[in-house]
Amino acid sequence: SGLLPAMLPDGLYVICVEASESLVEPMCSTAELQQELVPYVMSQLLKNSTFMKLPKPERQAKVKMLTQKMLSGETVAGVPEDEADEIAPHRFWAHLRAKYGTRHGHLLQMLKLLERGLQGQRVVVLRFQSEVATPTASLFVRASAPCSAAGAAASAASRREFVAGSFRADAVDDWLHEPVGGSGSGRAPPLW
Question: Is the Cβ–Cβ distance between 69 and 48 less than 8 Å?
């Protein structure tokens, strides 16, 4: 699930967290996504009285067009402004995340389970952006001994240390939501 805890000999616990954008994607299969899409679009359109007054071929074309826009993430043009937010792609993705969960949700649950055992320990959390299932030894080396000022800054932005007694899963979660580097210029995760 993007989490790899390890205890080093001196009592230091290191938790490596994959902080890729896939953490916020719904944990549903393509088949489940397709199964949810048309009923979701239809449920939103059926709330619209003007949609129901359209001839059947126009309704079918509109459902097809909105379904494609939902998948592509485009904003829905041609829909009255007061209804556009209801069938906006971010609402559909939020619906899928609520129904199927996300890797981020599972990660937070795991951290909460580990929290009590890590309270009295020194903990370092390293975040990395990769789709590799497990971090390599080079991640540990890069996090512990940066070779330049830029490397040191990048390493510091990807590292959060907790002294014994201060580890909190919610603090890690808050930190994971911060853009890398702490500036407000980070891009928003997809599907939000």
Answer: no
**Could you tell me the two tokens for 15?**
């938790």
- Smallest CA-to-CA distance from 92 within 35, 53, 51 is with 35
Unique residue bearing structure tokens 């580097």: 181
CB 123 within 8 Å of CB 5:
no
Quick one: which of 84, 108, 86, 83 has its CA closest to 95? 86
Dist CA 53 CA 59 (whole Å) = 9
pTM value is 0.62
Beta bridge partners of 12: 122
Instruction: Please answer whether residues 111 and 1 qualify as being in contact, where contact means their C-beta atoms are separated by less than 8 angstroms.
Output: no
**Mean model confidence pLDDT for the chain:** 75
Taken in order 21, 101, 178, 158, is the CA torsion positive or negative?
Answer: negative
